[in-house]
Amino acid sequence: MEHFIDEIDKKILQLLLHNARMSVAQISKEITMSQPSVKERMLKLEDKQIINGYRADLNLKNLHRGTTTFILLKTEQCQNLVDFCEEAKEVTDLYRISGEYNYLIKVQTASIEELADFQDSLIQLGPSKSHISMKNIMEHRIML
């Protein structure tokens, strides 16, 4: 089901993407609309599940999780992999993909050594290829 959003909704979403803690009062000033109208629009966006939540943007390097790695994995043990990833603190994202490999796992570790330990525990599920990010250039970008 497609949900129509107008330019005002897009402005609200852009402001919240920039700062999820922005108050309704501040948003209403930015888009020159009354606070009750802004609040009503935000509630409608939540009801339509366009806004699913409000999150903090963490500095993973300062949390000793600054090494980003993307792991391609080929497995037939799909549920075992999902269970493994749900338990592994290093895993931040898991995608089912097409092609030679059927999963893409994004992991955040403190070091290459910690990554090696993670990969050692992952090997039981199938062959993999790892790509270590040298620099995060763009992340969490949403174009409205």
UniProtKB/TrEMBL annotation:
InterPro entries: ArsR-like_HTH, AsnC-type_HTH_dom, Dimeric_a/b-barrel, Tscrpt_reg_AsnC-like, Tscrpt_reg_AsnC/Lrp_C, WH-like_DNA-bd_sf, WH_DNA-bd_sf. Residues 5-68 form the HTH asnC-type domain. GO terms for molecular function: DNA binding. SUPFAM superfamilies: Dimeric alpha+beta barrel (SSF54909), Winged helix' DNA-binding domain (SSF46785). Coiled coil: none annotated. Keywords: DNA-binding, Transcription, Transcription regulation. This is DNA-binding Lrp family transcriptional regulator. It comes from Paenibacillus shirakamiensis.
